[in-house]
From TrEMBL:
GO terms for molecular function: electron transfer activity; heme binding; metal ion binding. It comes from the Bacteria. It holds the Pfam family Cytochrome_CBB3. PROSITE patterns: CYTC. Residues 45-124 form the Cytochrome c domain. SUPFAM superfamilies: Cytochrome c (SSF46626). This is Cytochrome c domain-containing protein. Residues 1-26 form the signal peptide. The keyword Signal applies. Keywords: Heme, Iron, Metal-binding, Signal. The keyword Thylakoid does not apply.
Length: 458
């Protein structure tokens, strides 16, 4: 009996040692991977390669500037599946089938995978591995504290500084972590309505001198990655002043680049960031209310806007007036929908959509600016089409299609037409019947669909 018990203990000990060995090896591998990516971040050729591959394979869901559309924001500090280089690489390789993201392990070369991850890392913004410490003070006048005064500490998983954490009146709070800002422009840490507050900033362990006037304070930041510690010592100020809104801003403070604290994040969700097509066409790939995922918004100087969907090849929205308020999209990390500023003429499920067969596939190829207007190229099954627009006549939109390749020698194509009050549709090259347009593409390679309106559909 004692022999059996000893054998059992040995088995448990061996199992634990084996598990610890595997864990140690995995941690060592992850550390090596992370160090490898730090070297790649210094290689401009790799970053250019990553930018190109990201635009081809990732921008459709995460947007070209990584701010998030259908997929998550890839610039800020909130990483659902892990933000270390090794974790980002694993996410890219394995994908998330339930969320519609394929794994790229067998699609892209190892070099392209690593280049994409390096490019993503080069665009990061805000804190990484942010921690906080709260110290107990004796009174409003107490400005000194040490390790013995520490009453709470921890990690902030969303990497946003929360100044409402303390539940006591007299305290000091520190936020510390690696911090990322753009490498291409001069930036500042910025706070408003902080006149008289005891705020300090350390960068890589050294105090940073602030500039302040009329309740505004800013601290210069270094480019790229650095380590910041923000310290706030509470005094006699009221609770509403203690919840501080920190942003990173550009050199002349005209643009708030991204929020750093919870108050700033909440403010950015409520803020208005209007996008208007004043001097030329504007293309935005954002999540938009009343439109399905993968819709690209196009604004014209004539104050006519439409949405082209890269998954259905349909024009699934048309509105006149100004283009978009993207403030909710920015504040919501790409999850909240941007708001069209004008009046809807129609929106999804109404749409202008080419149809060939009941079970058809749409393959988006590219868009480019042609003759100062966006031109979309796509395939419906194996029929290649292009789409551009003409808004030169008031209260009219002309959608111009061209057949670029027809390997199956199809003789006709049909379009489902949108139905909306005050909207009329016509085509000189096709036949309209019961909200369907049919065009003879055996003889007609270029055709257009006109939409005219007298009022707006809300």
């Amino acid at each position: 009996m004692p022999h059996r018990k000893l054998t059992h203990i040995r088995i448990i000990a061996f199992t634990l040692l084996t598990a610890l060995s595997y864990q140690s090896q995995a941690q060592s591998t992850d550390q090596h991977t992370d160090q490898h990516f730090q070297a790649l971040l210094q290689n401009n050729k790799i970053l250019k390669q990553g930018e190109k591959q990201f635009a081809m394979h990732c921008a459709g869901c995460h947007k070209k500037d990584l701010s998030g559309a259908v997929g998550f924001n890839l610039k800020d500090g909130e990483w659902v599946h892990g933000g270390k280089p090794s974790q980002i690489l694993a996410s890219l390789q394995n994908g998330f089938d339930k969320a519609g993201m394929p794994g790229f392990a067998r699609i892209l070369s190892q070099s392209d995978q690593e280049a994409i991850v390096a490019y993503i890392l080069s665009k990061r913004e805000g804190f990484e591995s942010l921690t906080y410490k709260i110290y107990q003070l004796e009174s409003d006048e107490d400005k000194y504290y040490g390790q013995n005064d520490l009453i709470a500490s921890g990690k902030l998983n969303k990497n946003i500084a929360d100044f409402e954490l303390p539940e006591i009146k007299h305290y000091a709070i520190e936020f510390s972590g690696d911090f990322h800002v753009p490498q291409t422009e001069k930036t500042y840490l910025f706070a408003e309505h902080v006149n008289g507050l005891n705020l300090t900033l350390e960068n890589n362990g050294k105090p940073v001198e602030s500039e302040g006037w009329k309740g505004i304070v800013k601290w210069p930041l270094k480019s790229g990655k650095q380590h910041l510690k923000i310290t706030y010592i509470a005094g006699k100020e009221g609770a509403w002043l203690r919840n501080i809104g920190f942003y990173v801003v550009n050199k002349d403070m005209s643009i708030k680049l991204f929020p750093v604290s919870t108050k700033a994040l909440a403010e950015s969700k409520k803020s208005t960031y209007d996008i208007k097509a004043l001097a030329g066409y504007v293309v935005q790939q954002k999540k938009i209310i009343k439109l399905p995922p993968y819709s690209m918004a196009i604004g014209a100087p004539q104050q006519v806007n439409y949405a082209f969907n890269t998954r259905s090849c349909a024009v699934n929205g048309l509105w006149h007036g100004d283009m978009l308020n993207i403030g909710p999209n920015i504040g919501g990390r790409g999850k909240d929908g941007s708001i069209p500023l004008g009046d809807w003429l129609y929106h999804y499920p109404q749409q202008l959509m080419p149809t060939l067969t009941k079970e058809q596939t749409c393959s988006f190829i590219k868009y480019r600016i042609n003759d100062n207007a966006p031109e979309f190229t796509f395939k419906v099954n194996d029929l290649t089409l292009s789409l551009t627009t003409d808004f030169s006549h008031k209260n009219q939109a002309r959608f111009v299609y061209s057949v670029l390749d027809n390997p199956s020698n199809l003789t006709q194509i049909s379009f489902v037409l949108p139905s909306a009050k005050g909207l009329s549709l016509s085509s000189q090259q096709g036949k309209v019947q019961q909200q369907t347009l049919t065009v003879d593409i055996a003889s007609i390679k270029n055709f257009s669909i006109q939409m005219a309106w007298t009022g707006a559909k809300q």
